[in-house]
């Protein structure tokens, strides 16, 4: 009797220890297989979106399911090629203007030092000048080629994964849990892509209106950063400031652009996205921030972009088992563990 009661008391501790060990092992696998697993997950998310759109086309226009998948794949292929070309051109324009931006940075530095001297603010001009001269602008320029090749390699790998996954989707029949998970994740991704495109387009209009250099690159950056919850839109709002400072200095351009971008991200993020997503992935805000940190440490920037849907999938899987259901409740914001 005593041994039986002791075993019952230790059962929760054993469960927690097993969960911790499993989490550590899974994290190690995620880090070790990053180069292969990350493109596969991205491809899987793309296929989820395409499958949802294909199913909608089947219900709306009575087209065969495989025709909808093929149409979505061709559209995905065309958009991928256009996006890669657009990003490559933007990076190339940045590289070509690196010397000009360095000269403008030195001019802006002289302006700041002159203003500081005018208001009798003591600044070590020699130290500041040396620090600016050591900025890794040219090292960044040299690494652009390798970055482009890395992006191209990942894009090819993602494309191959998309093809192989689609080859196994001759019909839209699947397990109810898988279907529910696909519906929620794909809906989130479709809404997120839509609002991110809208934010990027509005940002491009504002930056083009004031003739901002690198407006296209900053719009692409806005689209990417908008996938990072909470932090991404804030970074996207501030990202044009250095370019505007180098181009115009401290004047009304910076104030005007910042005001417009703050309004754009507020309206899109807090009104449109909230209205379309509702409760979203049913994740607690604290859990969202924690998952953002975890996935950023595991998979870098791409992990931060995929943090919400990946955590939502983990939550859905945990809900399927009685033992792990309390952990799913914690991810949803219920910290009682009852």
How are the SSEs placed, and which strands pair?
Elements: H1 2-32, H2 34-61, H3 65-96, H4 98-118, H5 125-133, H6 137-142, H7 144-167, H8 176-209, H9 215-225, H10 231-238, H11 240-248, H12 252-277, H13 285-305, H14 307-318, H15 325-331
Helix pairs in contact: 1-2, 2-3, 2-7, 2-8, 3-7, 4-5, 8-9, 8-12, 8-14, 9-10, 10-12, 11-12, 14-15
What does this structure look like?
- This protein has a domain at 26-172.
- It has helices at residues 2-32, 34-61, 65-96, 98-118, 125-133, 137-142, 144-167, 176-209, 215-225, 231-238, 240-248, 252-277, 285-305, 307-318, 325-331.
- The longest helix is centred in the middle third of the chain and has 34 residues, at 176-209.
- It has 15 helices and no strands.
- The chain is 83% helix and 0% strand.
- With 338 residues, the chain is an all-alpha fold.
Order of helices and strands: HHHHHHHHHHHHHHH
Shape: globular
**In terms of per-residue confidence, which ranges show pLDDT below 50 for 5 or more consecutive residues?**
none
Radius of gyration: 24 Å
What fraction of residues sit in β-strands? under 5%
Q: What is the helix tally?
A: 15
Tell me the total number of β-strands: 0
The percentage helix is over 70%
N- to C-terminal separation?
A: 26 Å
SSE class:
mainly alpha
Mean pLDDT: 79
- What kind of sheet is the major sheet? none
């Amino acid at each position: 009797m005593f041994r039986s009661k002791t075993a019952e008391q230790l059962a929760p501790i054993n469960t927690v220890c097993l969960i911790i060990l499993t989490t550590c092992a899974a994290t190690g696998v995620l880090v070790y297989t990053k180069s292969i697993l990350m493109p596969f997950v991205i491809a899987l998310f793309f296929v989820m979106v395409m499958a949802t759109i294909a199913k909608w086309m089947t219900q709306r226009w009575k087209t065969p399911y495989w025709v909808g998948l093929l149409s979505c794949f061709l559209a995905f292929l065309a958009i991928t090629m256009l996006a890669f070309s657009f990003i490559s051109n933007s990076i190339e324009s940045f590289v070509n203007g690196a010397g000009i931006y360095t000269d403008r940075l030195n001019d802006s530095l002289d302006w700041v030092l002159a203003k500081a001297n005018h208001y009798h603010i003591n600044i070590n001009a020699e130290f500041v000048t040396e620090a600016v001269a050591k900025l890794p602008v040219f090292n960044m320029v040299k690494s652009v080629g390798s970055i482009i090749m890395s992006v191209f390699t990942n894009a090819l790998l993602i494309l191959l994964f998309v093809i192989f996954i689609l080859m196994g989707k001759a019909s839209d029949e699947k397990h109810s849990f898988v279907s529910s998970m696909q519906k929620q994740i794909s809906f989130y991704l479709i809404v997120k892509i839509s609002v991110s495109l809208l934010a990027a387009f509005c940002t491009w209009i504002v930056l083009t209106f004031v003739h901002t250099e690198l407006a296209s690159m900053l719009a692409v950056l806005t689209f990417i950063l908008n996938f990072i919850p909470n932090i991404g839109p804030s970074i996207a709002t501030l990202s044009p400031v250095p370019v505007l400072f180098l181009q115009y200095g401290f004047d009304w351009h910076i104030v005007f652009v910042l005001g417009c971008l703050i309004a754009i991200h507020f309206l899109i993020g807090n009104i449109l996205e909230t209205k379309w997503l509702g409760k979203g992935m049913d994740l607690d805000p604290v859990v969202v921030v924690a998952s953002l940190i975890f996935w950023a440490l595991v998979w870098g920037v791409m992990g931060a972009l995929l943090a919400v849907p990946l955590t939502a999938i983990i939550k859905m899987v945990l809900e399927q088992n009685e033992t792990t259901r309390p952990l799913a409740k914690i991810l949803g914001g219920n910290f009682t563990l009852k």
